[in-house]
Write a structure and sequence with these properties.
Four copies of one chain form a homotetramer.
Chain A (H helix, E strand, L loop, with lengths): L5 E6 L13 H18 L4 H6 L3 E11 L8 E11 L3 E10 L5 E13 L2 E3 L2 H8 L2
Antiparallel strand pairs in A: 1-3, 2-5, 3-4, 4-5, 5-6
Amino acid sequence: MKDFLYSLELKVRDYECDLQSVVNNAAYLNYLEHTRHEFLLSVGLDFTKLSEMNLSPMVYRADIIYKTSLVSGDIFISTINVSRKGNLKILFHQKIYRKKDNKLMISATITKVIVKDGKAYNPDFYFKAINQE
Amino acid sequence: MKDFLYSLELKVRDYECDLQSVVNNAAYLNYLEHTRHEFLLSVGLDFTKLSEMNLSPMVYRADIIYKTSLVSGDIFISTINVSRKGNLKILFHQKIYRKKDNKLMISATITKVIVKDGKAYNPDFYFKAINQE
Amino acid sequence: MKDFLYSLELKVRDYECDLQSVVNNAAYLNYLEHTRHEFLLSVGLDFTKLSEMNLSPMVYRADIIYKTSLVSGDIFISTINVSRKGNLKILFHQKIYRKKDNKLMISATITKVIVKDGKAYNPDFYFKAINQE
Amino acid sequence: MKDFLYSLELKVRDYECDLQSVVNNAAYLNYLEHTRHEFLLSVGLDFTKLSEMNLSPMVYRADIIYKTSLVSGDIFISTINVSRKGNLKILFHQKIYRKKDNKLMISATITKVIVKDGKAYNPDFYFKAINQE
């Protein structure tokens, strides 16, 4: 039933909460990015390495459904799955669950492309690294 | 040809840029929220007022397409249009254009619902305020 | 040689880094706040409780010396000590060390006062909670 | 009575406010940085130029007194003065005033050094640019 490749446990920080006493919508993008980078690091794909190869992974699309709001004190599990769309797009399927009751807080699909010299670059090396995990 | 109800001119702040020397993906969510709040304020719908009515506008969905990256020094125009979906959903159609060449940087649809006592609340008052502008 | 009351291990998140490829100066304030709140929570002083007592802890002063910059990938230890200044001020002595070599990255003194009904409030209960730890 | 070299008018954005319904302490560091960068740009010292000269301006110290809290909706004026300390340190004297009543919200001294190849670099060029304004 483990439907993800990688997961990270994090805790809400009070400065991430806003006037409405919930985690601000933008902060989830931070959580999602941090989870992706930690995941990629875990399979040997870090930003420094990609930079040396003159490759820039760019977010092309973000589609997020906010189910329930995280609040101060909440611990949560941020999970990732990956798939490919067409030749060039990498889809990160990301979910965040509140730890205490496993409730789904947000569900997101983040589409990335790898850019080299201003053009989309074939992400075969990406999927090779991920699948060797 | 003016296809928006409201627009706001802003400038990239260097702390919004990240390791890749472009505005971080999450920072656009901040721009979009700030534009929505300024727009709503301009039609008399501020957070204090809504709070007094015990109403909580919540982001339910965010769908963002990143076309081109804003960088340090860029001035941009953030525009808003609004439509209704079904009875309860408010759609904010938001675009960000780079000022110097009017190039579209991002295009987003943010779906909000108004919550009162844990249930979705009819947003008629919202559209009334917006259309009276 | 343990010269702190509490410590927290954290890792730099890439979105906290800026154009200069180091953690942005403002992000350290986030780290320091999160460490204080986690520390206070560990001795039973959470924001909800204080709110119920109508007490607002406010930062009155922040004095920070930046020694070396944290960068992407760094793990660090954030430590706290507390002392009292005069009757009303609480001083948080906070240091951040890079984990891999125990190098001091920043050293800060954050001065807080507890405000109740617009006036400074005696923080005896604060020190009582801390010392009972 | 104009006791500053440069000033910038800004408005609080709701996402900068936290659980306590005031601008979060760390957000002021963002305001101060943005004001410095805009000021430096106005005298021809932008980050790109400095980078080309292989120079990294680094914050060495930040001393901030928080007088009153900015809240949602506040417009404020962020002012800068500059002085030199010793041979190598640049002091930015920065104040933030609430626009509606000219009340001082925060007062800060930010100490910077210019680093080149890991060593502090003589900031004569900096003061020359500033004084030619």
